[in-house]
Amino acid sequence: MRITTWAEYGVICALNLAKRTELGPVNGREIARQERLPADYVEQILLRLRRAGVIASTRGARGGYVLARPAAEISIRDVIHASELETFDLHCVSHPVEEERCSASHSCSIRPVWVMLQQKIDDVLQGVSLADLLHDEPTVRERVGLPTSAPVSEKVGLPILETV
After folding, report:
1. What residue segments make up the domains of the chain, in order of their start?
2. pTM
3. How many Å apart are CA 96 and CA 137, to the nearest integer?
4. Where are the alpha helices (DSSP H) in 2-129?
5. Phi then psi for 114, rounded to 5 degrees?
6. Residue of 17, 18, 164 whose CA lies nearest to 28
7. Which fold has domain 5-148?
8. CB 78, CB 69: distance < 8 Å
9. Residue 57: which H helix or E strand, with range?
10. pLDDT tens across 45-91, in order?
11. How many helices (H) and strands (E) does the chain have?
12. How far apart are CA 16 and CA 12, in angstroms?
């Protein structure tokens, strides 16, 4: 799975709204300014989030965007799915190697692995809410089941190698 810019910005925008729940609506340009993101990109993402029911909008001088539900009820999967329109691209469906080989009517021993992986990813993303992300990194790491301190290899992007 690769997290796209659409997904990343979607989570950033939704988290911005979660942080300011008590302050009322905010417009897209203000979110873009606060998060230092391209305003046109943010407006497109907010439109996707609104269409998916993740956020709501109000018109007028004091209009803007707010979360449509409490942050605890909005999963990261909801946000990524709304922003990206999917959380995991089954490449054999979207870009088949060969039409016959990759068709649903053809038996493929690889496809179940990709489907299982998609389900696992969706389960993890569904289990983390915007409210979970309102905390500092050590708290979020603990909530998602990771050690509160990142191993050195994770900090520098190296794979973690276990010794036996």
Report:
1. 5-148
2. 0.79
3. 39
4. 5-19, 28-35, 39-51, 76-84, 91-94, 99-102, 111-126
5. -65, -40
6. 17
7. Arc Repressor Mutant, subunit A (1.10.10)
8. no
9. strand 55-58
10. 999 999 999 999 998 888 899 999 999 999 999 999 999 877 666 66
11. 9, 2
12. 6
